[in-house]
Input
Amino acid sequence: MSDLLSKALRYRWLIFWILALSYVLVYFHRVCPAVLAVDMMRDLQAGGGLLGLLSSVYFYPYALMQLPSGLLADSWGPRRTITLFFTIAFVGSILLGLAPSLLWAIVGRTLVGLGVSMLFVPTMKTLAEWFRIREFATMTGILMAMGGIGTLTATTPLALLSTWIGWRLSFVVVGIITFLLAILVWLFVRDRPADLGWPSPSELSGSSPKAVGLLEGMKKVLTYPRFWPVAIWFFFDCAVFFSFGGLWGGPYLMQVYGLTKAQAGQVLSMLAIGMIVGSPMLSFLSNRVFQGRKAVLVLSSFVLLCLTALLAFYTDQLPLPGLYLICLGLGIFSSAIVVIGFTTTKELFPLQIAGTSTGLVNIFPFAGGAVFQPLLGHLLESHGRVEGAFTLAGYEQAFLILFVCGLIAFLASLCLQETLAGQ
Output
C-alpha cells in the first residue's frame, strides 16, 4: 500500500503541471486582445464598439458555464470535460486566426471562451482528489500564479510574436498549443488515484455533511443579503481590470503616448507581475497582518479608486514610470485581490454549498468585463478618430467610467461582512 501511495504522490505532480500549463492559456486568451487590438481593428475593419464586442464575447459563455462546469465535473469527470472543451477552444482559436470577417472572428472568440471556461472548476475538483487538505491552498495559489504567467505571455511575448508572424498566425499557433494540451490531459490526467488503482493522498474519505441540491443551494446564496456586496464588488472591480488590462490599455498606450506595440506590451506586462506577486502578498496581509478579509478588500479597493482617478483625470500627463506603476497596481489591487474575494465568498456559506456560492459569484467578474469592454469601445468611437487613432477626449470619458466603477467597488467593500473571525 505504501508503494502505491508513493506512486500517487509522484504522479499527481504530472497531473498538476499539465493542468497548470492549461490554466496559463485561460488567462492568455482573457487578456490577449489588449496587445492585438490596433492590428485587429485595422484588419477586420472594426470600430471600437465592435472590437469591444469581439473581445467581450469571451466572457459571456465563460460566465454562463460556471455552474454547469461543476455539474459536468461531478457527473462526467474532469478529464473528459477538460479534454472536450479544450478541443472546442482549439477550434475557436484557429477560427479566430483564419476569420475572413468580423462575424467569424466573433464566433471563434465565443468558442474560445466556451472552451476555456471548463478548466478552473474541474481542476479544483481534481486537486481535491490528489492533494491533502493542508496542501490544497498552496496548490491553488500556485495555479493562480500560473494565471499571472498567462497574462505575462499575452503582453511582450505576444507583441513580439505578432510582429514576427502577424496576429492571425499567432492565434493559430496558440490554437495548436491548446490542442496539444487537450491531448496531454486525455493521456495523463486522471480524475482520482483510484482510476489507476492507487490509494488517495487526500483526506476526503469519511463522513461528510448532508449534500445540498443545486437549486436549494442557489436559493440559499441568492437570498442571503451578505452575498450581494461581494457580487457587486466583483462586478465593478473586475470591470476595471478586464476593460483596461484585457483590451483598451494597449490602444491607450500606443495612441495617447505613442508607444510601439512591443513597448506597450512591456508596460502591460506589469499587470502579470502584479498578479504573480499580489496573490501571496495579499493572502499574507489577510491572514497574518490584518487577520481579516474586509480590511484588505477595503484597502485594495481604495488603492484601485486612486489608480482609476489617475487614469481619468491625468490621462495624458502620466510619466512612463507612472504607467508601469499603474499597471502593477491594477495587477495587484484589481486582479490578485480576487483571491481574497473568493475566500470571503466561501467563508460566508457552509461547506456543503461552497461550490455553488463560488460558481455564482464567479459569474459577476466576467459579466463586468462583458458589459464594460464594449461600452468603453462605444464611448471611444463616439468621439471619433484622428488619423485612425481614438481621441484623448474619448479616453478621458472612457476612463471616467472606470473611475466610477472603482468608486462603486470601494463603496461595496465597505458593506462587506468580515468572515475570517467566524472560521
In short: The radius of gyration is 21 Å. Strands lie at 385-386, 389-390. The longest helix spans residues 156-188. The chain has a mean pLDDT of 88.
